[in-house]
Amino acid sequence: MALPAAALRRYLLLLAQEHLEFRLPEITSLLSLCGGQFSGEQEIRVNSPFWILNIPSEEMAKGLMKRTVCAKSIFELWGHGRSAGELYASLKNYPTDKMLPYLQSDSTYKIHIHTFNKTLTQAQKIKKIDALEFLPFKGKVNLKNPEHIFWILEDYGMNPNDVPEEPIHLYFGRWVHGQRELIESYSVKKRHFIGNTSMDACLSFIMANHARVKPNDVVYDPFVGTGGLLISSAHFGAYVCGTDIDYNTIHGLGKASRKNQKWRGPDENIKANLRQYGLEKYYLDALVADSSRPIWRKGMLFDAIITDPPYGIREAPRRMGSQKETVKSVERSTENHFFVSSSYHLSDIFFDLLKFAAEHLVMGGRLVYWLPIYRPEYTEEIIPRHPCLKLISNCEQMLSSHTSRRLITMEKVKEFKDQDENSYFLDGQYMPYRGHNSFREKYFSGVTKRIAKEEKDNQK
């Protein structure tokens, strides 16, 4: 049950200026986990680095910051305004009893100034700090190791070519928490076991946050590869498992993906990756399986499905074939292991994925996956749909001038019935997306044209 607005406390979020499209869905998903919400008194400027949130407690605000990779810091907001006068008036109206615990005579503090889209001189900064002398600070200033840090944050707009003389919005608050260590500590460069398509650590955590992964969830990746998406979910306390059609990858065999390394080592596998981060206890298993032929019993098994299906750029989409299809498709995976693979159309991959999610997600569970797009032909109508799944968010990441991939988040809102088995054939939704079966050809066609243009330009 949502808390009344009076029971919520105001916080200011300072966001990173990267992955802009992913920020709002990530923060919205995390707020829904902690019982917070956006402040009704602000207009959400999606690209702005400053958002005001209402959160039940400081503990929950810290919990949000421990998870997000789209934000830098969070502050207990004491005042804000569109001018210095409005800011000072807002601060004077802030309850003194909420300030006093951080302004005691036996405490130490410092005031930091952060400006967005403008650089101030040291003299300008000192002048702004001195203007806050009306606040009842009783402690001593300590610039190296203070107990409490207060921030003045000024927003000079989004246009670097038209910076106003005065800020368009000012904020003052007490620093509560900040972290950007997740991305660095889980960097793929330092990871024990990687493949050609291992997911960037930042995006992996964004996907887990969009899926609202929480402790004791069961998370599944049907195209698990080297398990990069399992790591972020396990970090948040979820039990993880996956399947993949590639026998060598699941068992950590064959050629290595790292430069100057020919073959994978004896302990290069998914389980070793989780062990590297102290997450082995959350690892259930990874199986060799074909996503077009699910191996799972019927019923709701997973709290979240998070995946990056192959779409033919670095890895070919495949599924199990039959001996009749073609002798040429036989592949050797190990000394004594053979299988027959056939092509797996993109449209079939995504509709099989949606059907599987509709059947095997718990109610309220989320499916988060990447959808490749040829931008000149993109419309929202080509996003695969299912009557049991509601579209929550749709964020674009550019791959080239003409191609991108979109991070799709869907939530299960309806119980799966037998009549939903082939629902993707309804309403003409299946046919529009079939055009993207040629995504690989369109991608490389664009690359070829770009190279030809560059060569022509160089000859001039």
UniProtKB/TrEMBL annotation:
<keyword id="KW-0808">Transferase</keyword>
<dbReference type="GO" id="GO:0000049">
    <property type="term" value="F:tRNA binding"/>
</dbReference>
<feature type="domain" description="Ribosomal RNA large subunit methyltransferase K/L-like methyltransferase">
    <location>
        <begin position="190"/>
        <end position="316"/>
    </location>
</feature>
<protein>
    <recommendedName>
        <fullName>tRNA (guanine(10)-N(2))-methyltransferase TRMT11</fullName>
        <ecNumber>2.1.1.214</ecNumber>
    </recommendedName>
</protein>
<comment type="function">
    <text>Catalytic subunit of the TRMT11-TRM112 methyltransferase complex, that specifically mediates the S-adenosyl-L-methionine-dependent N(2)-methylation of guanosine nucleotide at position 10 (m2G10) in tRNAs. This is one of the major tRNA (guanine-N(2))-methyltransferases.</text>
</comment>
<dbReference type="InterPro" id="IPR000241">
    <property type="entry name" value="RlmKL-like_Mtase"/>
</dbReference>
<dbReference type="Pfam" id="PF25904">
    <property type="entry name" value="Tmrp11_N"/>
</dbReference>
<dbReference type="Pfam" id="PF01170">
    <property type="entry name" value="UPF0020"/>
</dbReference>
<comment type="similarity">
    <text>Belongs to the class I-like SAM-binding methyltransferase superfamily. TRM11 methyltransferase family.</text>
</comment>
<keyword id="KW-0949">S-adenosyl-L-methionine</keyword>
<keyword id="KW-0820">tRNA-binding</keyword>
<keyword id="KW-0694">RNA-binding</keyword>
<keyword id="KW-0819">tRNA processing</keyword>
<keyword id="KW-0489">Methyltransferase</keyword>
<dbReference type="InterPro" id="IPR016691">
    <property type="entry name" value="TRMT11"/>
</dbReference>
<dbReference type="GO" id="GO:0043527">
    <property type="term" value="C:tRNA methyltransferase complex"/>
</dbReference>
<dbReference type="GO" id="GO:0160102">
    <property type="term" value="F:tRNA (guanine(10)-N2)-methyltransferase activity"/>
</dbReference>
<dbReference type="InterPro" id="IPR059073">
    <property type="entry name" value="TRMT11_N"/>
</dbReference>
<dbReference type="InterPro" id="IPR002052">
    <property type="entry name" value="DNA_methylase_N6_adenine_CS"/>
</dbReference>
<dbReference type="GO" id="GO:0008033">
    <property type="term" value="P:tRNA processing"/>
</dbReference>
<feature type="domain" description="tRNA (guanine(10)-N(2))-methyltransferase TRMT11 N-terminal">
    <location>
        <begin position="10"/>
        <end position="178"/>
    </location>
</feature>
<keyword id="KW-0963">Cytoplasm</keyword>
<comment type="subunit">
    <text>Part of the heterodimeric TRMT11-TRM112 methyltransferase complex; this complex forms an active tRNA methyltransferase, where TRMT112 acts as an activator of the catalytic subunit TRMT11.</text>
</comment>
<dbReference type="InterPro" id="IPR029063">
    <property type="entry name" value="SAM-dependent_MTases_sf"/>
</dbReference>
<dbReference type="GO" id="GO:0032259">
    <property type="term" value="P:methylation"/>
</dbReference>
<dbReference type="GO" id="GO:0005737">
    <property type="term" value="C:cytoplasm"/>
</dbReference>
